[in-house]
Amino acid sequence: MRLIPCAILGALVSCAPVPPDPKQALIERGRELFFNETFAGNGRTCGTCHREEANFALDPAFIAALPPDDPLFVAEFVPALRENFENPRLMREFALILENLDGFDDLPSRFVMRGVPHTLALRTSVASPQGPRAGWSGDGAPGDRSLRSFAVGAVIQHFTQRLDRVAGVDFRLPTDAELDALEAFQLSLGRGQDPVLPLALKGAVARRGQEIFLDDALGKCNRCHANAGANAGFGNLGNANFDTGVENLPDQPARLGGERVPRDDGLGTPGDGTFNTPPLAEAADSGPFFHNNAVETLEGAVAFYDGAAFNSSPAGRAVGGIALDATQIVAVAAFLRVLNALENIRSGRENLESALRLGYFERQRGDALLRRALIDTGDAIEVLAGGGLHPRAVLRLESARGAADAARGSFFGRRRQLERATAALDAARAQMIESPR
Amino acid sequence: MNRRTLLGAAFAFALLGQSFAHGQRQTERYIPIGQSPGVSGKATRVGTIEDVDAGARTFSLATDEGRFEIAVPPGTRIWLDRSRGRQSAQSGDFGDLKIGRRAEVRFAQPARKGPAGWIKVEVAE
Questions:
Q1: Which H helix or E strand runs over B83?
Q2: Looking at the partner chain, which of B22, B40, B87 has a beta carbon nearest the beta carbon of A130?
Q3: Which stretches of A45-168 are DSSP H helices?
Q4: A112: which chain B residues are within 8 Å (Cβ-Cβ)?
Q5: pTM, 2 dp
Q6: CATH number, domain at B77?
Q7: Domain of A391?
Q8: B84 — contact with chain A (CB < 8 Å)?
């Protein structure tokens, strides 16, 4: 008779929350700061532009669903920020953010309009022999140029209450401890290493796309995006800057509506026309593409390298030009879509497994992990379905999403649903790739 | 060195040119003296301006670690730190380096000596 209460007590004790290790605690502190700390500014946080629901980036569809008083739109409702802080039209239509990268002395004329780069896989994508390269032109961080310092520049540029930008008045600068936490959080996001290509892909189109990607005489993608990451595949350059001619694209969407969009000269002041190489494994679900969101679709982004703007650029000439036909462009994009879905599955599975390890009293943390797993699973569905790829994997992913969603609302069946979701993710993965995880 | 390595090196040179120094300097002007993350106290010196030689474009900075003669090459960014007066930072020039003013100097070389990379000068008004 006494065994039953003891068993219940034992179960409860074993399910008690385990204190997080110091590194995890720092990451959690960084997460809290990233999404909630306004630094006494205009109400924006890091997460205002780097939305977790949008892969830590920003796109027009996501923006369209935000309420009008979202801090992203401060230029629309804070009088002191109405002029020369953002361009609300370009923000809403193209998810472009105003940056004064060449100085603050002439705000009406000296600015550039840039997309929001995601903050995933930063562990793999900012190191170079010349030091860290953060942001679209690789020079995004002030101070020691490190990712740790990046938040300081972001607060000054984007969080200020007035264009006077006085520290202690219009914002407060992050403390050293806050910078440590923010850096730890950002480095915790996404992959910790690049894929090792080639992968044993099952889909014929994606497999062919991978071949083209790796072919130094055809696609030539791997030269600058080794293993579909952000590092050059030659010369130990690490994460490098290239002038690929994106600024020379004709009919750039942001310029078609008559808004003033100065030419972006890239790295340095004056700029040298180069921009930083982003990782590609996350590309399919983090568009629009390039530093100026010039191209909306992944297929369009691959096709860019077949066009005149790239082939007449310094980078295009250096590789001897790239010529791909439509089927090859779609194949490379299919490869990137599958790669992205595999990363979504890895990340989603990691979150589900973390949720499974949590105790009974850690439901709130578990819900946050499940939410992230649902985002990843939804993204995997979108990138595959968007390319007409692996419909059976998509079905498994939908099952995984259903089970993860059910786990969120389940009291006693949570573990069973989590296990179902994990198994469905594994089944989806098995549709796409031969090799073991 | 094989052909592939040579091609890679040529490719790298063609693409990178001379753009080795990188760092967002524009927001630096709004960071008050001594507060730049990872830089203040490590790559800079903070002190008081003691002498200025406008002809030679040099000045001396008295710091806790001694007195340093600092060259200011043309084009060196000079910012006026007015944060103590709760005023916005401004761009300045060599003429703003005045005796008695507090200043922070980032050096163009990592050893915290030699010519200035940028200078922040505290201005009271």
A1: none
A2: B22
A3: 46-49, 60-64, 74-77, 88-94, 122-125, 147-158
A4: none
A5: 0.92
A6: 2.40.50.320
A7: 332-432
A8: no
